[in-house]
Specification:
- This protein is α/β, with parallel strands linked by helices.
- It folds into two domains: 4-218, 3-Layer(aba) Sandwich (Rossmann fold); 241-356, Rossmann fold.
- 26% of the residues lie in helices and 22% in strands.
- The chain contains ten helices and 17 strands.
- Strands 7-11-6-1-4-5-12 form a seven-stranded parallel sheet, with helices on both faces.
- α3 packs across α4 and α6 (254-265) packs parallel to α10.
- The longest helix has 17 residues, at 23-39.
- The protein is globular, with a radius of gyration of 22 Å.
C-alpha cells in the first residue's frame, strides 16, 4: 500500500529543445502553480529541467511561476533519448516523491511520460484538457461511476487527489479520471489549453541541482544527426489569429482565398479534417481532436460545420467568427459572430473592408 503522505509537490516537466523552452512548458507551470496553491499547505510547483547547458533557462522558469527548479544537466542529455531521459526522470521521482507530475502532450512528452509511468507502476492520463483538485465531491464530476471504478475511494472525502479530464469516445464525452491507489498522479496536457501565468519580473526561487546517474551504457541509441524539416512550419499553437477552412470551400483552390484572407488579417491558415482528408491542405494545418489544439484571439471558421472533434480543438478561442451558409450549423451556434452566407462572397468582402476599419 502506497503511503500518500510521503508524496508532495507538483512537478512540471519543462521541455526545452535546443536551449529554448517550449510554450507548453510555461503553460503547464501556470497550471501547476494553480494546482499547488489549491492543494495548499506548503505545496510547491517545481520545474524539472533536463538537458545540457540549460542554466540560462532557470530565471525564466521562476518568472513563470516555479518555486523550485530541479536541474539535471549532462552531456549525455544534450539530445532527447527515450532511455536517457526516462532514467533520470524516474530516478528523480523515486528520490523526491512528487504528488503530481505533468508533461506537455508533445511528441517527446507522449514518448516519455508513459515510460516513466510504467517504471513507477502508476497511472497516466494522456491528452488532458482540464485538471482539478478534488476538494470534496467526485460525484459532482462523474456522471456515471461505480464503486468499482473508484476502488473503494470515498467520493465525498475531498482527498485533494488530481481529477484529470480528457475527451473520450471520439470526443463525444469528457471523462474525468482519478488515480486512487498509486502515486505520483501523472498526466500529459495538450499544448494551447492551459493559461501561462503573467511573467513576474524579479521573481526568484530555489535551484536544486540533481546528480545525474547516467552512463553511455544506459542509452541504447546514438543520435548521429538532427535533421530539421525544411518546409515552413505552421505555428498554429502560438497564432493570435487563425483563418480556418473546411469542406465548404469546395476544393483545394478554395484555400487560395483562405491564404489571402490570412495574409490580410495577419493570421495563420487552419483547416478541418474534412479538408485535410480531401487532400486540399496538409495535415499540419488541421485543428481539432486529432489535429492541433488552438487558443487564438480570433478564430475564423469558414465553411466548417462545427463537429465536436473540431470544436474540441478551438472552442476556447477568445472570439469565434463563423462564416457558413447554414444558419443552423453547430459552429454558428457557438460563434460570437455568425455570418450567414456564401464564404466566396463574404470573405472577399471582409478582405476589401479590413483596411478601412
Ligand atoms: P462538413 O461537416 O461537411 O461541413 C461543411 C460546412 O460548410 C457545412 O456547415 C456547410 O453548411 C458549409 N458550407 C458549404 N458550402 C458553403 C459555402 N459556399 N459558404 C459557406 N459555408 C458553406 N475534424 C476536425 O476538423 N478536426 C479533427 O481533429 C477531427 N478529429 C476527428 C477524430 C475522430 C475520431 C473522428 C471520428 C472525426 C474527427 N474529425 C475531425 C471529423 C469531424 O467529425 C468532421 O467530419 C469534420 O470536422 C467536418 O469537417 P467540415 O466542417 O469541414 O465539413
Amino acid at each position: 500500500m502506497v503511503n500518500f503522505d510521503e508524496y508532495k509537490n507538483v512537478w512540471v516537466y519543462t521541455e526545452q529543445r535546443d536551449g529554448k523552452l517550449m510554450n507548453v512548458a510555461l503553460e503547464l507551470l501556470g497550471e501547476g502553480y494553480r494546482l499547488s496553491r489549491e492543494i495548499g499547505g506548503d505545496t510547491k510547483v517545481c520545474a524539472i529541467l533536463v538537458g545540457k547547458d540549460t542554466d540560462h533557462l532557470i530565471p525564466e522558469l521562476y518568472k513563470y511561476g516555479a518555486d523550485q527548479v530541479y536541474q539535471m544537466d549532462s552531456p549525455l542529455l544534450a539530445h532527447y533519448t527515450t532511455d536517457g531521459y526516462t532514467k533520470v526522470m524516474t530516478d528523480a521521482i523515486l528520490a523526491h516523491k512528487p504528488e503530481i507530475v505533468l508533461f506537455g502532450a508533445t511528441h517527446i512528452g507522449r514518448d516519455l511520460a508513459p515510460r516513466i509511468a510504467a517504471r513507477l507502476d502508476t497511472g497516466l492520463t494522456a491528452d488532458c484538457t482540464r485538471l482539478d483538485i478534488n476538494t470534496g465531491n467526485y460525484m459532482h464530476y462523474l456522471e456515471t461511476y461505480t464503486t468499482a471504478n473508484l476502488n473503494g475511494l470515498d467520493p465525498e472525502d475531498g482527498n485533494k487527489g488530481l481529477k484529470q479530464t480528457r475527451p473520450a469516445f471520439g470526443g463525444n464525452l469528457m471523462a474525468t479520471i482519478v488515480t486512487p491507489n498509486t502515486r505520483p498522479q501523472m498526466a500529459t496536457v495538450r499544448p494551447g489549453v492551459m493559461e501561462k501565468r503573467k511573467r513576474e519580473e524579479g521573481k526568484s526561487g530555489e535551484l536544486i541541482q540533481e546528480k545525474v546517474q547516467l552512463t553511455e551504457a544506459d542509452i541504447h541509441v546514438e543520435v548521429l544527426d538532427v535533421v530539421k524539416e525544411a518546409k515552413e512550419l505552421v505555428s498554429l499553437t502560438d497564432a493570435q489569429i487563425i483563418c480556418s477552412g473546411g469542406r465548404g470551400l469546395g476544393n483545394a483552390e478554395g484555400f487560395e482565398l483562405i491564404r489571402e484572407f490570412a495574409q490580410k488579417v495577419g493570421g495563420v491558415v487552419g483547416a478541418s479534417r474534412a479538408a485535410v482528408d480531401s487532400g486540399w491542405i496538409e495535415q499540419s494545418h488541421q485543428v481539432g481532436q486529432t489535429g492541433t489544439t488552438v487558443k487564438p484571439k480570433i478564430y475564423f471558421a469558414c465553411g466548417i460545420s462545427g463537429a465536436i472533434q473540431h470544436l474540441a480543438g478551438m472552442q476556447t478561442s477568445d472570439i469565434i467568427v463563423a462564416i457558413n451558409k447554414d444558419p443552423d450549423a453547430p459552429m454558428m451556434q457557438i460563434a460570437d459572430y455568425a455570418i450567414c452566407g456564401d464564404l466566396k462572397k463574404v470573405i472577399p468582402e471582409i478582405i476589401a473592408q479590413w483596411d478601412e476599419e
